[in-house]
């Protein structure tokens, strides 16, 4: 797993700010609620790709597996929340995913390439944050977050491979464009704590 995590650290433009780690530890109930939302949204994204691109067999197989895994993670987060007496409530979404999707092209094949790149970046950042958080959490939550690293790392790789396939060649330039946006979203102060937010203003 160290090798996969190193690959993700090499891929991402920055590490999670230490201030965000402090925010997460001070808002663990909120972190779990938003984590559950993130898993559900990840499954929804995979399913929407399956509905839109019905002739792409490789995408259909990878997204089907990914959706199942994300829904399983969703159930696992809910179970942890239930044991801790944390209610699953509606939250306003972080600016993170919307900020990345603003740069997605409107027409295919560019749209598909960009959506897959965004998916890869979100999965990579999730993996990086699980690893960054785990050493600071209680044993049960740390064990759970460490258990997610392998699948999140694979999801990142799957998305990136599908993007290259959809583009018919390397996607390095588009990846660099999106990573520049991602770095700002991760490092610039945020007004609300979320799993993919920047560090809180105060």
TrEMBL record:
GO BP term (any one): tRNA modification
Entry-linked SUPFAM superfamilies: Ferritin-like
GO molecular-function term, one example from the UniProt record: tRNA 2-(methylsulfanyl)-N(6)-isopentenyladenosine(37) hydroxylase activity
Gene3D superfamilies named in the record: 1.20.1260.10
PANTHER family, per database record: TRNA 2-(METHYLSULFANYL)-N(6)-ISOPENTENYLADENOSINE(37) HYDROXYLASE, TRNA-(MS[2]IO[6]A)-HYDROXYLASE
The protein, known as: tRNA-(Ms[2]io[6]A)-hydroxylase
Native source species: Marinobacter vinifirmus
Lineage: Bacteria, Pseudomonadati, Pseudomonadota, Gammaproteobacteria, Pseudomonadales
